[in-house]
């Protein structure tokens, strides 16, 4: 036999043996994982569930040896089991383990698949912070990952989609949008009609709803309704809820109710948590239309469903609506209890209470005559409202304080009347009258003095709060809240977004005090240089600044000003300090968000170009 034929035959035999070994190994690992799953399942349904956390890492490591079809099925089975047996603590533990060095030996496709499944489990249990923490540690490696199969590509896109959704729930919409857009691009690369593109549009609708961009929210919700994948009914009620809410926020309650009725004519969504959100929007619309009797009935059903589903944020809103409606129909004690529970109920990812909850609680407390308590909760409302960058109706606080002062005055008047009665009983009418007048005058002066002092303190505190609400405490510049208001003004024609380079070095090497001095120095130099140009400066992040200018300055002039600021900063002793910036004019973008986004992108392009610039040694 010729040597070439012999070699081909040997190679073929080796390949056959290798294939048989791979099949045998895969079958062996599949049997091991199935045995492990049976043990985990038995433990999960027992009283002591703690061993599940100990067994799962071994199960995940074993799944690393399986084919894509098998490790996908394995992760799905575990997810269903953890949810069915309410293994919240186990899900949190697995999220931490997947981010540890112990999981580094797992191939990316398997590890990221488990991260995706675990993220969905954590969101199911309302553990949004844990999901976000796990994904944040892997974001950079997820983006550079080059998955080979469509299943792995789906995992990559879904992880970005999930992270964007988590940011939206924190109302960090501007940060979330790039992740949605990247996820949508990845999905389209897999399939131009990929079902997840529908989900992206749903979440974009939700994102713009949180950003108070109600027209855009309506647009994306309607687009999602136009491309519902065949058989995809699990989020329809949620989508209709987003659409109805966006329409309602545009002061079109009748259209919102028509949208709600359109869904109710053919309800197809089996997800109770999504239908719960839809019902909460339905109640809002009924309240707008003052159909309170129907709203009360729906609120009771919704509250019952929220308790059954166990979603913390939705249960909080359900209690708020039911409390308001019970109060409207005169059941004040029930209303007080429900609204108190709404105030103190956990809220999931947002970790805060809606200002509306405080406001409705204050209204009930006022009607019950509990003015001191009402005043306290109205101050909570004030803080929450400021954090959401909305205007505050301080007249209500003043009214509550006046009512509290009236109660104090009534008590003082009662004391004076008692003294007068005692004086009359002692037959010293003439002397006691003069004394009474004297004491009344003293009391009135005392009360007037206290009121004046309280008024002065309140005015001073009000001015301090107003200043703090719009100014940055470190630099004295306007803050991000002031920037969000200023950017709406039509007379600003040019925007510069600038970001310090080198802050991390000074924080790490010299301490955060030195880093603060760097930020203060840069802010001072920029202000001194650009003030003559009619610029308005804002600190909008840790080391990020925005500059609004009424007129469009030449780019050479801006470059000179920015370089001059860095030169002065370096002369102050910050030799390694630098800054990147991006410029955008109002004519380039119509929407405020797009204008800021354009300047921000250009700033990051400058920062990236500096990173890519070769060093002296390289040259």
UniProtKB/TrEMBL annotation:
Catalyzed reactions: 2 GTP = 3',3'-c-di-GMP + 2 diphosphate
Signal sequence coordinates: 1-30
Transmembrane segments: 436-458
Domain of life: Bacteria
This protein's UniProt keywords: Coiled coil, Membrane, Signal, Transmembrane, Transmembrane helix
Domain GGDEF: 491-619
Coiled coil: 397-435
Pfam families linked to this entry: GGDEF, TPR_12
E.C. code: 2.7.7.65
The protein's name: diguanylate cyclase
The organism of origin for this protein: Marinomonas sargassi
